[in-house]
Amino acid sequence: MPVKLNYHKTHFLTSSPNIHAIPSDTGIEIAFAGRSNAGKSTALNALTNQKSLARTSKTPGRTQLINLFEVEPNCKLVDLPGYGYAAVPEQMKRQWQKSLGEYLQKRECLAGLVVLMDIRHPLKDLDQQLIEWAVSADLPVLLLLTKADKLSQSARAKQVKMVREAILPFQGDIQTEAFSAQNKIGIDKLAAKLDEWFSPVFVE
């Protein structure tokens, strides 16, 4: 049985524009990735029950750095720069993509990827590329369909089913869940998946 971690104890560690300035590649890290308007920071704040652990902004795309948070020693959550939509200069966008790609490809302690997508607009090209990459890297993925409170229960169930069927061809270790920070939907599923991914840290 995985150890149940207390995510409310999570605290900010550091921010960096690239992987060369983040702490040593040890322990286990779980990364949160998604389009700039998918609600990554909001999901992290909901998971940790802290209003401003991860900075949220009215303007999507404000996570420009790799942000690290520590849950327990050797257990870290990573908020990666958003991709896709963001009203910023092209050069800045390219810089974020570079740091995002570098982190994903070179970070040895990365043990799982949480990909966040707006439940109303899931599986855009960049989302699919990220999932494909994770599967090819043997990395397990949790797809969180955010803003689930915006849909009725039946519409929500329909979207989850559609995404689950759409990702079957990827043939990876991929779990799909509806999520709403607002209505606390899916927070328990997210915590349980993180517990599972962090569990090797606690094996004697």
Short description:
The chain is an alpha/beta fold and 204 residues long. The chain has helices at 40-48, 90-106, 125-136, 153-166, 187-198; strands at 11-16, 28-34, 66-72, 75-79, 110-118, 141-146, 174-178.
C-alpha Rg (nearest Å):
16 Å
N-to-C SSE string, H for helix and E for strand: EEHEEHEHEHEH
Largest sheet: 7 strands, mixed
Low-confidence stretches: none
Total count of strands: 7
Mean pLDDT: 88
Shape: globular
Proportion of strand residues: 15-25%
Q: What share of residues is helical?
A: 25-40%
Q: First CA to last CA: what distance? A: 13 Å
Structural class: alpha/beta
Taking strands numbered 1, 2, ... along the chain, how are they ordered across the largest sheet? Answer: 1-3-4-2-5-6-7
Provide a descriptive summary of the structure in words.
- With 204 residues, this protein is of the alpha/beta class.
- Helices cover 31% and strands 22% of the residues.
- The protein is built from five helices and seven strands; from the N terminus they run E-E-H-E-E-H-E-H-E-H-E-H.
- The chain has a seven-stranded mixed β-sheet, sandwiched between helices.
- Helix 4 links the parallel strand 6 and strand 7.
- The longest helix is centred in the middle third of the chain and has 17 residues.
- The two termini are 13 Å apart.
